[in-house]
Amino acid sequence: MYWLNTYAGAWHTYFQGRLAGTNSSAETPSTNHTSPTDTFNFNNWVTLLSQLPLLLFTLLNSFLYQCIPESVRILGSLLAILLLFALTAALVKVDLSPGLFFSITMASVWFINSFCAVLQGSLFGQLGTMPSTYSTLFLSGQGLAGIFAALAMLTSLASGVDPQTSALGYFITPCVGILLSIICYLSLPHLKFARYYLTKKPQAPVQELETKAELLGADEKNGIPVSPQQAGPTLDLDPEKELELGLEEPQKPGKPSVFVVFRKIWLTALCLVLVFTVTLSVFPAITAMVTTSSNSPGKWSQFFNPICCFLLFNVMDWLGRSLTSYFLWPDEDSQLLPLLVCLRFLFVPLFMLCHVPQRARLPIIFWQDAYFITFMLLFAISNGYFVSLTMCLAPRQVLPHEREVAGALMTFFLALGLSCGASLSFLFKALL
């Protein structure tokens, strides 16, 4: 997800130094009008190379889940991400030319997000079989990752630690988090709740069918109860009652049709694509360039973007994701959701007209810091809320046995929206 963009912002000083050809705490990057990160279009490339593999490998995962066990995909992805982060941490101490360092970094970003796509798609597939509350918690956890990165950036700035040491800490910390994730996943089979939802049951037990048959009561004509032996798997029920009791599920051969599921959730999926398209088109490619309008140099000018861009976005995004734990509005039958999602496109010109000094075409209309902060508040909370809302509504629009497919499809469209937004960020930055 876009939590990696926040980490890229947190490492900005470190990357600026490496791309300028310095890798020493005693050296500082040159102070030309065009920074090394701008020369390499660093934020844009990180955004694009984060989202393209997410799209491609999310699509690939829809085929992998049929031939590769779920535990292999999840554990394998976690281990691969762990090794890549460890390699990136080791590169902090290795002197490389700017061009080679940029290439290795972009390759690392590509492969990390490739395995993240497989991991995320597999986890969303599992969540599709669970109550929607757990999808909300999962999405809230992703929001917390961005908050953690923003706080790490602020702590580094406040402590005055040199960029090289800070970057080493940034890369080692995810390694610890991934190790904890592996331990937590390995503990799932020991939890009764997880076994109940995650264990595949292609056919319901005969005892369960007999119990459901007993619950139907008696024959409607003469009031004589039907015995469990007579009303077992061969009981002829009304289709609506079969659906209500879940008896028709074992009789469905094979896996649910992807196209059938897509026809049910296409509008919700489109809303998810539009939400992420707007968000990634300006965050962080445009928003990270906004500076304070205050003329006096000081702490505020140093902390303005880390606080008002990265920290504020991630906190409000997390808050928006958490709101769906209390209410879901609009619901899955409302036509208001697409309208509200489309209104978010207004944020694109609003941010482009904020105080961005490095511009050649558009004027600056919103000079004051208060405008940018207000825009960011609404931008972030609406992003988190609509992302979580669409991910929760999609499983409710399909039958129970189709929810896993719906979860995998929504993950693909999530990645599609991220990729579209990352691609548009190049255009919007050029229009400045």
UniProtKB/TrEMBL annotation:
The chain crosses the membrane at residues 45-65, 72-94, 100-125, 137-161, 167-188, 265-291, 336-358, 370-393, 405-428. It comes from the Eukaryota. It is found in: Apical cell membrane; Basolateral cell membrane. InterPro entries: ENT1/ENT2, Eqnu_transpt, MFS_trans_sf. Its main location: membrane. Pfam families: Nucleoside_tran. This is Solute carrier family 29 member 2. The lineage of its organism: Eukaryota, Metazoa, Chordata, Craniata, Vertebrata. The gene is Slc29a2.
